[in-house]
Amino acid sequence: MSIFLKIQDTVDGKLGSVYLTIDGRRYEVPGIQKIEAHDVVKERTLKTVGTVRTQTAVAGVEGSGTMTIQYYAISIFGKIIEKYRREGNFTPFDLLIVNYDKGTGLGRRSASFSNCTLCGDVPLAALDSTIDDALTIDLKFKYDDFYILEDFAEPTAIGRE
Known about the structure:
The chain is mainly beta. The strands form two sheets. Strands 2, 3, 4, 5, 6, 7, 8 and 9 form an eight-stranded antiparallel beta sheet that branches. The protein is 9% helix and 52% strand.
């Protein structure tokens, strides 16, 4: 007999919230279309005489992420860039990403990402006559650390075959 997860306990990716904290002020961010944060596991390898194996060990992690957000947010991130250009101070921010689909029995999952900094291209102004949808921008960020503040419960919608 095997078990499987029933659709009632699958998380709808559209349901949740994103919060941004800059200079101690916390904002709920509307208009996020997609956000993802992930760690890249760095490895080191060792080859030795007497074996054909390559040994690996974890050498560290690097956190980064991407977001697609409505164009209005350009002002929030543009201010960070402008402050850096004028004063030489690049303001970090914290992110809180909350998954909460009330239709499941899983509850909430909240993950906090600290000391985030923008990286790569940061749009500062945009127009686009070729799209019929709302104007969005894509941003990349890096973070120093993350914490799982609350995690999903064990699924209760389990089927058996």
